[in-house]
Amino acid sequence: MSDKKQKIIYTGTDEAPLLATASLLPIIRTFTSAVGIDVELSDISVAARMLGEFSEFLTEEQRVPDNLAELARLTLESDTNIIKLPNISASVQQLKACIKELQAKGYALPDFPEDPQTDEELQLRTRYGKIIGSAVNPVLREGNSDRRAPKAVKEFARKHPHSMSEWKQWSRTHVSHMHGGDFYDGEQSMVLDKDRKVKMEVVTDSGKTEVLKAEIPLLKSEIIDLMFMSKKELCEFYEREMEDCRQSGILFSLHVKATMMKVSHPIVFGHAVKIYYKDAFAKHGELFDELGINVNNGMATLYEKIAELPASKREEIERDLRACQEHRPSLAMVDSSRGITNFHSPSDVIVDASMPAMIRSGGQMWGGDGKLYDCKAVMPESTFARIYQEMINFCKWHGNFDPVTMGTVPNVGLMAQKAEEYGSHDKTFETSEPGVARITDVETGEVLLEQRVEEGDIWRMCQTKDAPIQDWIKLAVRRARESDTPVVFWLDPYRPHENELIKKVEACLKDHDTEGLDIQIMSQVRAMRYTLERVVRGLDTISATGNILRDYLTDLFPILELGTSAKMLSIVPLMAGGGLFETGAGGSAPKHVQQLVEENHLRWDSLGEFLALAASIEELSLKFDNSKAGILASTLDAATGRLLDNNRSPSRKVGELDNRGSHFYLSLYWAEELVKQSADKDLAEHFKPLFEQLSSKEEQIVKELAEVQGKAVDIGGYYLSDPELRKAVMRPSGTFNEIMDSASSS
Ligand SMILES: NC(=O)C1=CN([C@@H]2O[C@H](COP(=O)(O)OP(=O)(O)OC[C@H]3O[C@@H](n4cnc5c(N)ncnc54)[C@H](OP(=O)(O)O)[C@@H]3O)[C@@H](O)[C@H]2O)C=CC1
Ligand SMILES: O=C(O)CCC(=O)C(=O)O
Ligand SMILES: [Mg+2]
Q: How many C-beta atoms lie closer than 10 Å to residue 288's C-beta?
């Protein structure tokens, strides 16, 4: 065994995963300390990131280190091993709520400048912008992604299938996307002939040259793309689709990813809201501007701002908004009991999760009356929307999928170094004047790519470096070999960017041993159809995709196959040699916190954490030749399998086993598996007392964990809860705590 320090960095995040960590982390440490592995907690919650960014506003004692920057640095080192739990990708509303909570707790943070005017406000806006949206994952992802349902999880889903609503052939649900004027339509792409520095600029019709990004360093062989979305065509599209939806009497639902596409999608969302409430905006637009209302952040901000107006004015606006609804389609609801529609916030409906949920529900979403209806799922950008229509066609024809018999679709996703659209937000702009948008070589003045844009168009540049592409292809070949499963590269030859990728894939595959492997390249719609034909026959197919489809497919298939993406194994082999282990592919489940606070029951399932932990320990065992760690990893996997088989996962109902109870059973089974194994006698001896105590006290511990439920609890905050209160709530069994604490010190 090597002498180097063996360490796992476990991320402290937000909401349900953070609560679960208060219970699980001490348990993990009890086990890993026996094999020489340290587990260090690194707080990267929204609150911690905010405090890290604005230290100059804080007192000495209030300051915290910039943990995310440190983790980003570590991803470039070969020994790094990080377990990354889901975190909040904050909307503006969430950001403001976090600022308010921290200010109330005595942190003198500046207010969020909603409508920045002065230089100082613009600077603050930029700094807060770093915390908004998907600000963690892209920074840590210095590798491509390998996401799959582990065998035990898939088998469990087959034995205990989740509910699936029926698809009717006569369902009117469908996807609507633009057929022109979108990013797909206007894309241009090129591969760099040499290292260059470029700038992004618009030469306006009025004769100005606006430099929007002064210098972007590019490397030889990387792919760059230039694309735009026409405001005019987007608005015409919305108008047409809203009218079509009204006539057909189904729900209008808009599916965007405003968290990850944090510049473009709020704008795309805002236009939908403004078209829907067109007459009210025509009448009150000036007042809305004066009030600093920006509906790109959702109707919630509008209602909040007009609440400050005199009652008569507010009522007039509300009446006018309601009048618009009369000749518009009904909106899909996020929470019909509270009247929260799809337009409330751009981050309430997140496409990767919302479309699978709709497909799982037989193509229906909730209407304002709390009943389910068919819907028009609007995804303006056509590039990836078509895969959902293909799946809907398949469901209408074949009926819903059956989790008992369906095959599995693991994914190998190109995402390293902010690949493709998901790395483009610092290179995305809304044009203020018509002109020519172009990418120009800073040194030679050579124009590499250019296209015409009009006022209000969204234009952007995407980058995909060559090393991540080569690594992605290698990973796909490796996964095909290791799992003996066919791979389909989902690449569309009609899209310039993907056409360049196809050339690279074809060339690179020649350098790999692909003897006996089934590797194909298909455009997205064909790839979906091909994969689904196999899925219904119980056959497995790896999807090798770009970054957006990685995100979409690793929610879509897991939600259909397993009921949730939280049960996925999600590994990011870092290109520098380390490992990033993401827990599941799901989010941070805000509803779970509400339930805990109201009735002291946490239904968060830590299965994703268990799977990631085993993979993380396994990697350390290989890297440091630590055979004991290898046993710890394999016994953890065995314990997780038993947890599933014995139905010790959290229940949704108060009074029944919850997250904390499932952690107890994991400890019990893990200790037992360690005692049962014969490969390392010392390890078996070490864990024997722990196993004996846990098993003899099982009844009492489960009773203590159940007894506390049913009453409201205080964790001292939402974004910055109190660690002591969190610990008290999440570790309520004195008997269990005593056993675990004494085992870790022994
Ligand atoms: N990797 C990351 O860091 C990611 C972060 N996010 C962020 O998470 C937040 C919420 O996103 P949202 O789209 O609502 O998606 P979530 O995945 O958080 O939740 C959707 C629903 O899935 C179920 N669910 C998800 N995970 C679990 C789990 N571990 N145990 C039990 N049930 C689970 C819950 O259903 P039920 O209510 O029925 O219990 C939950 O309400 C946002 O801030 C988003 O940006 C989203 C995706 C990935
Ligand atoms: O970082 C985020 O906001 C979401 C990430 C995500 O959905 C994913 O990687 O699957
Ligand atoms: Mg996702």
A: 19
CB atoms within 10 A of CB 60: 6
CA gap 382, 524 in Å, rounded: 11
pLDDT at 611: 97
- 368 in Cβ contact with 336 (< 8 Å): yes
Here the tokens at position 32 are 């890993």
Query: Which residue owns the Cα nearest ligand 2 atom 2?
Result: 134
Q: State the distance between the two ends of the chain, measured CA to CA, in whole angstroms.
A: 22
Spacing of C-alpha 22 from chain mean position: 22
- List the chain residues with pLDDT less than 50: none
For residue 589 and ligand 1, the question of a CB distance below 6 A is answered with: yes
Put the strands of the sheet holding 447-453 in their side by side order: 209-218, 196-204, 435-441, 447-453
What's the token pair of residue 384? 């990836």
**Vertex 358, ends 352 and 361: CA angle to 5°?**
140
pLDDT value at position 584?
A: 86
Kind and range of the H or E element at 463? strand 458-464
Would the annotation count 604 as a binding residue? yes
What does the domain layout of the chain look like in residue ranges?
6-142+574-745, 256-349
Give tens-digit pLDDT for 174-203.
999 999 999 999 899 999 999 999 999 999
Count of CB atoms situated within 10 Å of the CB of 193: 9
Q: How many whole angstroms separate alpha carbon 315 and alpha carbon 305?
A: 13
- Residue 244: which residues within 8 A CB-CB, separation 6 or more? 176, 376
257 Cα–ligand 3 center, Å:
9
Ligand 2 neighbours (beta carbon < 6 A): 89, 134, 137, 259-260, 352, 551, 554, 585
Dist. CA 21–CA 162, nearest whole Å: 26
- pTM for the full model? 0.96
pLDDT at 96: 96
DSSP letters, 370-383, are: S-EEEEEEE-S-HH
Task: Report the Cα 633 to chain-centroid distance in Å.
Answer: 26
Residue nearest to atom 19 of ligand 1 (CA): 589
Sheet holding 223-229, edge to edge: 188-191, 223-229, 458-464, 428-430
Tokens of 275: 């078209």
The torsion angle over the Cα atoms of residues 654, 568, 668 and 727, rounded to 10 degrees, is -60
Is 86 near ligand 1, meaning CB less than 6 Å away? Answer: yes
Choose one of 68, 255, 259 to mutate for the ligand 2 pocket test, by most ligand atoms within 8 angstroms of C-beta: 259
Pocket test for ligand 2, best of 551, 556, 565, 568 (most atoms within 8 A of CB): 551
d(CA 660, CA 584): 19
Tell me the angle at which helices 382-398 and 524-535 cross, rounded to the nearest 10 degrees: 30
Q: Which helix (H) or strand (E) holds 425?
A: none
If you write DSSP's letter for every residue of 320-357 in order, what string do you get? Answer: HHHHHHHTSPPBPEEEGGGTEETTS-TTTSBHHHHHHH
Nearest Cα residue to atom 6 of ligand 1: 587
Which tokens hold the place of 136? Answer: 């963690």
